[in-house]
């Protein structure tokens, strides 16, 4: 498997402009990560994403600026701010909304990811974790200031509880330097540049990765050295990925599953307004596309 470079395509979410990086026709997943949106930087945006359902995934929201209020059908109400983690687990079904607090426009900038659950967990109980900024490991090494958001990286571990080998870290270069990134050989790693640029050498090839680009490095073949990276000071980026799931994933709107039958059931239940509990304090509801367009696409492979 070769190194892949992906450029995000324009989209919007609740009124906020964004680049949709994953899924992409050339890359359907990076380890268990099946979805990546980069929203902003946008001045004075009022994000209003009404209640909508999920199955079979975790959502990870990571903000560089601004504040978003999360509410879900478990009764959770939690603001997320810069440097904090919201990790929501959908399991067999959850409903949630994402809004700027009190309808006040924010200077929004951040990432949102979907991380597919394993087949053993995708029909389990939903859940929610919030981890404050002070509880995340932060350290400097090789001229990079690291924040370990999920999983482990360079001997440091995030307190976010996970059930599948997964990692997500933010790096900000403090000085011009070169370094290698050790990660398990069976993992896939994505390097997404938020600002600035990196040069990555791997498997005899050199790749320059600029802001808005994702470089996907496959599981390592025997004898291939670790990725070698060079960067100037002031570069902001994230590394993420993990062990690939053994089964392919299917998509229908906001639903992810290893079995298309699970998608069909979730779709029918949301359209019939059953199974998915409402969000306390947020009575709105986003309809499934098929409720408005009978020709809307259904199951898609991921």
TrEMBL record:
Residues 19-115 form the Pirin N-terminal domain. PANTHER family: PIRIN, PIRIN-RELATED. Pfam families: Pirin (PF02678), Pirin_C (PF05726). This is Pirin family protein. Residues 277-302 are annotated as: Disordered. Residues 282-291 have a biased composition (Basic and acidic residues). Belongs to the pirin family. It comes from Saccharospirillum mangrovi. Coiled coil: none annotated.
